[in-house]
């Protein structure tokens, strides 16, 4: 079996989405690119995450050729492969139907940066890619464009998508976007003002996070 360790990480991310309430049954999709071979581990279509095994995951190439796996890859295969093609810095893609992010995806409203930690992880407002049919080439292009210089975006009337240099980073961006969306919804339910962080502050927080946030021995 190819790439067993990367398969384990992809499956664990899928199960974490269930535990965190960001997707249900088989909603969304996850992939990770192996930096050595360039092969992509990606979730199959329609198999519930709770029943999925590492053997169920598919191994594909950037041009969508199935290398290993007994199931058809996710219908969003075009989305994942196009992101990897356009973003050589990205090694993981996480697409969820996170409920609060989905509210903003339906409204077509970008997420403002209201939380310090989210600003560090996201680096700026989270844009909304225009609606296209799920699984289509048009959706892949529109979403990849929204992600051209960002770690997260919303997909109109659909959900959220995050990317990163590894699965941990991509999933952290997913959580940051959902935390932000939930906070803004709660503020509005209180009729409270929303004070977004200035862009220069957000940029400074993001830069500091990328440069300094790592385990350091005393």
Describe the structure.
41% of the residues lie in helices and 14% in strands. Strand 1 (29-33) and strand 2 form a beta hairpin. It has one domain: L-fuculose-1-phosphate Aldolase (3-Layer(aba) Sandwich). The mean pLDDT is 96. Helix 4 crosses helix 7. By secondary structure, it is of the alpha+beta class. It is built from seven helices and eight strands. The chain is globular, with a radius of gyration of 17 Å. It has an eight-stranded mixed sheet with strand order 4-3-2-1-5-8-7-6, with helices on both faces.
Give a summary of the structure in a few sentences:
This protein has 218 residues and is of the alpha+beta class. It has helices at 4-19, 77-86, 99-107, 116-122, 137-146, 167-189, 199-212, and strands at residues 29-33, 40-42, 58-60, 66-68, 92-96, 128-129, 152-155, 159-164.
Give the class from helix and strand content and strand pairing. Answer: alpha+beta
Spatial ordering of strands, largest sheet: 4-3-2-1-5-8-7-6
CATH class: Alpha Beta
The strand count comes to 8
Order of helices and strands: HEEEEHEHHEHEEHH
Total number of helices: 7
Mean pLDDT figure: 96
Shape: globular
- The residue fraction in helices comes out at 40-55%
Beta-sheet strand percentage? 5-15%
The main pleated sheet reads as:
8 strands, mixed
Going by CATH, the homologous superfamily would be Class II aldolase/adducin N-terminal domain
- Give me the CATH fold name: L-fuculose-1-phosphate Aldolase
Q: Please report the distance between the alpha carbons of the first and last residues.
A: 40 Å
